[in-house]
Design brief:
This is Spheroidene monooxygenase. It is built from six helices and eight strands, in the order E-H-E-E-H-H-E-E-H-E-E-H-H-E. It is α+β, with helices and mostly antiparallel strands. A hairpin with a 3-residue loop joins strand 6 and strand 7.
Length: 226
């Protein structure tokens, strides 16, 4: 099994079709297709749903299934013109039904190695005001954190949200999570998690940790892995 995360520039009409239908491919176990949004952007703005920028997070039976999709599928060929990273699954906190087959832990890691974090959540729509209130400060923290080389978020209306971050090290990521970073407003993530535990924002959610295996293409003219 292998995972991948893709970023690509598409027409708004193709992005909307992909959000509605998603890909169909041999060896594809599950895919989440979402429109990018800028971390920390105003709650009501065009930056909250960028229809020319598609993100796809996918689980594959093996790497050859991913290769076939990128070479032979119409959407896959468009994604191959963008950027993607191939990932080895390591750990999850929480669970989403679509990825229920993932074990809680599948491997170890060095605290100093680079790491990729993916969150996936199905929001309780009545909780949206609370989610924005407590989540947007965390978005700003992560977007400007010196421990990240890249951070973004994505949405598929009405209730699916995701974040994707590349960290220089596991230690930098865990320090952020626990409020130990030497940055302004370092406590915001820990405070938001306490509020989440007090009353869950989501029907289901998972925070997943991956080891980056290989990087393909560029995004906005640059490579993203450290």
């Amino acid at each position: 099994m292998i995972h991948s995360f893709h970023l690509a520039l598409l027409s708004p009409s193709l992005t909307l079709r992909t959000l509605r239908r998603g890909p169909r491919a041999g060896g594809l176990r599950h895919a989440e297709c979402l429109a990018l949004m800028r971390l920390g952007s105003p709650a009501v703005s065009l930056e909250r749903m960028q229809l020319r920028r598609l993100a796809m997070f996918a689980e594959w039976e093996d790497e050859s299934a991913l290769e076939r999709f990128l070479a032979d599928d119409g959407l896959g060929r468009r994604l191959s013109d963008g950027w993607h990273v191939r990932l080895q699954y390591l750990r999850r906190y929480g669970e989403v039904a679509a990825l229920a087959g993932l074990p809680v832990r599948a491997g170890g890691w060095d605290p100093e190695e680079p790491i990729v974090a993916v969150t996936l959540a199905r929001l309780k729509l009545p909780e949206l005001p609370r989610f924005l209130k407590w989540g947007r400060p965390v978005e700003r923290l992560v977007a400007s954190h010196p421990g990240t080389t890249f951070a973004t978020a994505a949405i598929r209306p009405p209730r699916t949200f995701s974040t994707f971050t590349i960290w220089r090290s596991v230690r930098a990521m865990t320090d952020m999570v626990h409020g130990r970073s030497a940055v302004a407003q370092a406590h915001t993530h820990a405070v938001a998690m306490a509020e989440q535990h007090r009353r869950d924002f989501h029907h289901e959610s998972a925070f997943m940790r991956f080891r980056p295996l290989s990087e393909h293409g560029t995004w906005e003219g640059r490579r993203l892995l450290p």
